[in-house]
Amino acid sequence: MEPNKGLVLGYNGVHPFSKVEIKDRASVQELLRTLLDPLEPFFSPLKSRVRCPGATAVRFDQTASEVEGICRPLWGLACLLAGEGEYHGTEWWVEGIKAGTDPESPEYWGYPRDNDQRMVEMCPLGFALAVAPVFWQSMSEKERGNVEAWLGNSINEKKYVGPQLHPFAGDAYLTWLSMPNTNWLWFRVFANLGLKKNGGKFSQERLDSDIEHLNTFYRGDGWSNDGPEGIHQMDYYSSSFAIHFLQLLYAKLAGEEEPERAAEFKKRAQIAALDLAHYYDNEGRAIPFGRSVGYRFAMVSFWGALAYAGVELPEPLTWGMVKGIVLRHLRWWQTQPDIWSSSGTLTIGYSYPNMYMAENYNSPGSPYWACLAFICLAVPPEHPFWTSEEELHVGKIPEIKGLKQPGHIMSHLGGHTMLLSSGQACSYPMKGTHAKYGAFAYSSAYGYSVPPGLFSLEQYALASQLGLSDDGGEYWKTRRKSEYAGLEYRDDQPVLVSVWKPYPDVTVRTILIPPQESTPNWHIRVHKIEAGREVMTADGAFAICNQRSIDGRYLDLYDSEKCEGTFPKIIGNYDLNTPDGWAKGHQGAFAVSKGAVGIKSLEDKVERNAMLVNADPNSNLVESRTVIPTLQHTIKQGEVVWYVSAVYAKPSGEGVPKQSYLDGWDKVPDIPGWLKAEIGA
């Protein structure tokens, strides 16, 4: 692509990102350039800031947002330069860093205050200084002193104290003093490391103490938690967005001086790789789970970092599999044309622009953390990551695997990669936190849904969640925090057990059972509910695209010739009294469009009803219009009931005829004998 000052994607516009034929190292270099080029018109006059399109506010100031805009693309540019690649706009960043760190410049970035986003952006800057000599070598002594002061002095004085209980909010909110006691500490490590690699002024004492403290986040089996004891949060920050990724970069850059520390980080990555391979399917999709999934293709940065750090792969993984995970993932994002602004920059969202799923720290420049994926460009061309032929990994790793540390059971049955989850929760109640961590199932084919409003099931969009309402269906409570959550075994098979309380006098004990080879498209959810008050319940399946293939209108009643539609009928938002919209629970509800999803009740002693929730638009990460097959029921005060829900999913895909979408619908899984005994059936 030629350098471009005015890329505009109109009605027929195709982003250059989607036109690159990804096949080798040179093509991935070109792919990165298609991300960097559209930023050119948004640089400030002195190049120190990038104001990406979008006027959305975040919890930090506008200058910090624009510092994100220039620093986050550095992940990609620095990797390109470290791998001896070239970019015509490198000088923009060289000059921008000089102006941004100069206290006398009108575009000075400013020293970070407590809990300041500027500290995050010091990480890509520190890495760039460490691996791309052009930045430090282009600076005068005064300019280097400015960088030392901004990048080193300002952050090294910060102390991490936390989490602390907020004095006015009980245990509902957490606060940190100076610097969060989370993966942020790695950002200071890299600020110091970048200066150290260039002979600048840095703090070895602070660097060492931070790594020693970060090691207390390690929980075993290769996994680190994103925080201290009392927090259970192991999402992509534990692998690709921060902790494992930065451990591996550190092992590469500091390994000669600190061989024991580097060896430990590599060992953890080897162990974790056998778990993390389960989060990606053979179509190139990653399972959306947790916060910050708007960083998109950063989800695969762990795999490039393995190669960059020189890690020896554990069996059965091969470099062909690792290469395949990364390149297929990038190709899948090429098929998502709505992720771009009309100017060609990345938007806040997932498969399309979406503020409902955004965190309060997602500025218009935030999505460029996605550039972590290009760590593979720092890997030499002779490395087997680049010389190996791509291979598929699903089919060569276990089809079902329980992961103790994250509290997940992984499944590759039924045409998609799926995880069942129990026990995780963000350390603070971010927007949609119950959906990002507390849902029962997450799929590579069917993204999770977040609530765009706070009234009715349509707005709560309870995909893969059990909701309870004590006010007739206006407000709904779901699983957020669990009093107990554990990976247990029944008949030598993994199950997840959790106990949670949506209300003080309502207790739910949930058991999640993964698919079986005989019924690969089904998993089972069991809920024992002890109700101290009357509650309505709604148990949702996966959300699926609610559009007819012929014209994009909402789905009709199922048509077996078209192999499309729903059962029962979608009755429209908020209309709960139309008989055509309801079926018996054992009949279930399903929707067929891009594959099929559905839910049926298997219990005998309770009669639930099945229906379709026409979820509010833009609630789902992947599809902007969705419908959710759901079971509903009302539990009287003082009752104890058992629900056994069978949840169906068969995604569309290459080689999957639409006539086969419902092939498994009439063959529900058997209730296991151990479960019958536990229920007392």
Automatic annotation (TrEMBL):
Residues annotated as domain DUF2264: 24-391, 398-677
Lineage: Eukaryota, Fungi, Dikarya, Ascomycota, Pezizomycotina
Pfam families, alphabetized: DUF2264 (PF10022), DUF2264_C (PF20938)
The name this protein goes by in its record: DUF2264 domain-containing protein
Cited InterPro entries: DUF2264_C, DUF2264_N, UCP014753
